[in-house]
Write a structure and sequence with these properties.
- By secondary structure, the chain is mostly helical.
- It folds into 2 domains: about 1-50, Arc Repressor Mutant, subunit A; about 50-184, Tetracycline Repressor, domain 2, CATH 1.10.357.
- The protein is about 75% helix and about 0% strand.
- It has helices at about 10-25, 30-40, 40-50, 50-75, 80-95, 105-110, 115-140, 145-160, 170-184.
- Helix 1 (about 10-25) crosses helix 4 and helix 6 (about 105-110) runs antiparallel to helix 7 (about 115-140).
- The radius of gyration is 18 Å and the shape is elongated.
- The termini are far apart.
């Protein structure tokens, strides 16, 4: 298959996976669709991703990378402001058109085995984000940064889910208030 797109094949496959897996769910997208959407030959696809699980793992890693880039963008802020900025970004995400839930939780639903590489990558992301929050909260002088980080994670997951059933702007306001309460 040929294309005028000069983007490397692996990047085209990953871009198609990012778009399709998020919009249709991991289970709802087949390899043939990924090949078609990324305009690569079968052999090219399998050279870069020997199985669908390999593409899903790359998808999870790419979401992790993007989230870490967003977190790095607020790293120079004072810790309390950094936490607020992170949650403002999360609210921006669930208020955006086309929001279909947390990509990590969505993918986790299709990979229940905690020892599967995809599940481990999701767990690593969640552990990293919890550690980031705990560190920021400790630096902000919170009296119980571990418990507060757990509360913030519950708020994140709950807000992302609730925004699908309630006006996202109302959820944004509730989340902002809850984060302020946790920060003290």
């Amino acid at each position: 298959m040929t294309t005028r797109d000069s983007t490397p094949p692996r990047a085209r496959i990953l871009a198609a996976a990012m778009r399709l897996f998020y919009a249709q769910g991991v289970r709802g997208v087949g390899i043939d669709q990924l090949i078609r959407e990324s305009a690569v030959a079968n052999a090219t696809f399998y050279r870069h991703f020997p199985s669908k699980d390999d593409v899903v793992l790359a998808y999870v890693h790419e979401h992790d990378r993007l989230f870490r880039v967003a977190a790095a963008a607020v790293a120079d802020l004072p810790p309390r402001e950094a936490v607020t900025a992170l949650f403002t970004g999360i609210a921006d995400e669930f208020c955006a058109p086309g929001f279909r839930g947390c990509p990590f939780i969505n993918a986790a639903a299709d990979y229940p085995d905690p020892d599967h590489p995809v599940s481990r990558a999701i767990q690593e992301h969640m552990d990293w984000f919890r550690a980031l929050l705990t560190g920021l909260l400790a630096a902000a002088g919170h009296p119980d940064p571990d418990r507060a980080a757990d509360t913030l994670l519950i708020l994140r997951h709950g807000a992302m889910n609730q925004s699908r059933f309630t006006a996202p702007t109302a959820v944004r306001e509730a989340l902002a208030g809850a984060v302020d309460t946790v920060l003290g």
